[in-house]
């Protein structure tokens, strides 16, 4: 059995690929790569086929996360049938996902619902800011990724 996780932001070049790379790193370190499939997408088609933003890649690389293979794609209606978890970075993208999910059987949520140390529920878009915004995104994503992995382990892989 594979648990499938999809991270979604607007353009799929900053927040959602960060979440994909961080979560993949955590899953690999936990020895669970064969049990969890991870992807990311954007609600808009602005950056299909493009690598993540250079500032995003730089910040991630400084913390040991590899984004070299990631390319932007747009979320589709079939993603709600394919993925067990469809996780939005903010409420605006969550609203878009909820409209798309009405045609499928998915139930999108905010990714930061899994954060343990951040009370915010939206990952801010760092695109128009400075380097500190990308660092803040990484801090939030690391927190939520840890909580998500704990949740998946408990819900899908622990035997009573």
Automatic annotation (TrEMBL):
One family name in Pfam for this protein: LMWPc
Molecular functions per Gene Ontology: protein tyrosine phosphatase activity
Transmembrane segments: none
Superkingdom of the organism of origin: Bacteria
Active site: residue positions: 9, 15, 125
Alphabetized InterPro entries for the sequence: LMW-PTP, Ptyr_pPase, Ptyr_pPase_sf, Tyr_phospatase_low_mol_wt
Keyword set, alphabetical order: Hydrolase, Protein phosphatase
Residue ranges of every copy of the Phosphotyrosine protein phosphatase I domain listed in the record: 3-151
Annotated family: Belongs to the low molecular weight phosphotyrosine protein phosphatase family.
Name of this protein: Phosphotyrosine protein phosphatase
Organism encoding this protein: Ferrigenium kumadai
Lineage: Bacteria, Pseudomonadati, Pseudomonadota, Betaproteobacteria, Nitrosomonadales
Encoding gene per record: ptpA
